[in-house]
Write a structure and sequence with these properties.
Chain B: Pfam families: F-box, FBA_1. The complex is a heterodimer of chains A (159) and B (389). With 159 residues, chain A is mainly α. Chain A has 8 helices and 3 strands.
Chain lengths: 159, 389
């Protein structure tokens, strides 16, 4: 075990992104990531923790959102605000959204996984199948007959 | 080309799900491919209407939404957690069919309701007016032929299952549906008359997926007529609740869905006379009283469970006349939703039919929960939910 478990106040963890930038992060924030937690428990984190799958700009975003998430606990207004930011990001910069989600998934941060998944869910709400396919680059593999059959079977659900 | 890394093993999501990578054309500045378990998580958050739209996206999506039991469970849990504002409205016409309207709000604060409609008919030989008795965690309890045949059904999937019954309906009456959250079991409650003198009755429970009914031992009102008359889906604090309307003093009986023990819950001190109705509102036991004098409605909320002093009079509202008595849901903290329901308009439901037939409103969790999970020995059938022409 690392000697970190009983230090409660701001111990600093040093992390290095894939493009070589070094970050100093408070332990409480870093431990939001189950990946980092496991690395520390395995004692392979005495020095700088390498994060080969996360670039610096994305890591900035991750930390920022971790902090926001910690702040908004029990604050309904902030929660709403954070939830509504997803739409903007998905509209303006879907590429960054993907990278953020990928990083969050890799770092295994439960709270942000929840948030980013909710963002995309909110974004998909009410969109037509065609739009969703375009957005997520999914190929339509239904024949027109199959499509008609689904429409017929669930007519109550389609306008 | 960038794809998600294989380190996904450590994902917080269900690791038993098979992961597949799509190799569709990926361009810069697009959302890149998302692993299937995360897609599952995302789709499980969608309201039911959007979810059904998504069945048309691709075969993989359709199979996930319609055929994957892991997804069904995920969506079900999520829907319960979020307490989505999904309402089930049904017409109350005296005909062999009931028109069902599933109403969703598209976003909080938006006054737009999305309506899905279907009519409920029974495809078996009998042709009698179905009655929606109650809704619990995504399942409906529907009675045909005045309680002779009682079905449990998920109106979203169309699955239905008949409850076992050998008794005549006048001897055995289904009076409640609840959920034991510890065991994740649905339980149906019925009252059975015993043909002996003096008058006697017993309460039995059927666990969905089994084939029998078993008696609940400590029923306190076995010798009293008029107790536990209404159907109850009022699930608060893990117990179902019934209110006696006709008895004095007023009392509320509870039945714990987990240990199956009866209890008595204190009631508020009512000063006026009117029709009493119980419901679960935001997890609180709530009593509505529609006054005989002016048809206005008093709403009482028990802020702390089982504490008499915590009954608080919340608000007085006037009931739209077309809402008939069996309302288990009243969104009285939300004016826009009240207006929405009031303004609820549908070609099949003109002002006239509202006035004459009435419209029932029920809070319903739209869920993909499958009855096959609770199959037991019985067959899972399909109830027809036809689109209204």
């Amino acid at each position: 075990m690392a000697s970190t478990s009983n230090s409660t106040s701001s111990k600093i963890i040093t992390l290095r992104s894939s493009d070589g930038e070094v970050f100093e992060v408070e332990e409480s924030v870093a431990l939001e990531s189950n990946l980092i937690r496991r690395m520390m428990e395995d004692d392979c984190a005495n020095n700088i923790i390498p994060l080969p799958n996360v670039t610096a700009p994305i890591f900035y975003l991750v930390i920022e959102h971790c902090k926001k998430h910690a702040e908004m606990k029990d604050n309904k207004e902030k929660k709403k605000e954070l939830r509504s930011q997803g739409e903007e990001l998905l509209k303006s910069d879907p590429h960054t959204y993907s990278n953020l989600m990928e990083a969050v998934n890799y770092l295994d941060i439960k709270s942000l996984m929840d948030l980013t998944a909710q963002w995309l869910a909110d974004f998909l709400k009410g969109k037509s199948p065609r739009l969703i396919r375009e957005l997520l680059k999914i190929k339509n593999d239904f024949t027109p007959e199959e499509e008609a059959e689904i429409l017929e079977r669930n007519r109550w659900a389609f306008d | 080309m960038k794809i998600f890394h294989d380190k996904l093993k450590i994902s917080a999501q269900d690791s038993t799900t098979k992961r597949r990578k799509r190799r569709d054309g990926i361009q810069h500045n697009d959302i890149q491919l998302i692993p299937e378990d995360i897609i599952m998580d995302i789709l499980s958050r969608l309201p039911i209407h959007s979810l059904f739209q998504c069945t048309l996206v691709s075969k993989a999506w359709r199979d996930m939404i319609v055929h994957n039991p892991i997804f069904a469970t995920m969506q079900h849990n999520r829907a319960l957690e979020n307490q989505n504002n999904t309402l089930l409205m049904f017409s109350h016409v005296n005909s062999p069919e009931v028109n069902l309207y599933l109403v969703e709000r598209e976003a909080a604060g938006l006054r737009k309701l999305r309506v899905m409609d279907a009519k409920l008919t029974d495809h078996t030989c009998f042709n009698d007016r179905p009655e929606i008795l109650g809704s619990c965690n995504g399942l409906l309890c529907i009675s045909f032929y005045r309680g002779h045949r009682v079905y449990i059904s998920n109106p979203i999937t169309g699955e239905c299952k008949k409850l076992p019954s050998k008794e005549r309906s006048c001897d055995a009456l289904v009076i409640g549906i609840g959920f034991d959250s510890a065991r994740k079991e649905y339980k149906v409650v019925r009252r059975v008359f015993i043909h002996e003198k003096p008058f006697s009755q017993k309460i039995e429970i059927h666990t969905l997926g089994t084939s029998s009914w078993r008696q609940v031992v400590n029923f306190p009102w076995s010798d009293r007529r008029g107790s536990l008359n209404d159907f109850s889906d009022v699930l608060v604090n893990g117990s179902l609740h019934w209110c006696s309307r006709h008895q004095k003093p007023l009392h509320i009986t509870s039945l714990d869905m987990s240990d199956e023990q009866f209890g008595v819950v204190p009631t508020p001190e009512l000063t006026s006379r009117g029709d009493i109705h119980l419901m679960a509102w935001k997890g609180f036991l709530t009593m509505t009283q529609q006054l005989w004098v002016d048809n206005s409605m008093h709403v009482w909320v028990m802020k702390e469970y089982n504490v008499k002093e915590s009954w608080t009079k919340q608000i007085n509202v006037t009931m739209p006349t077309w809402l008939f008595g069996g309302v288990n849901y009243w969104p009285f903290d939300d004016d826009t939703l009240v207006d929405d329901i009031r303004a609820f308009d549908h070609p099949r439901l003109g002002a006239d039919s509202r006035t004459f037939c009435g419209l029932g409103v029920m809070a319903h969790t739209a869920s993909l929960v499958s009855l096959k999970k609770y199959r037991g020995r019985g067959k899972v059938g399909r109830m027809k939910f036809l689109p209204i022409q």
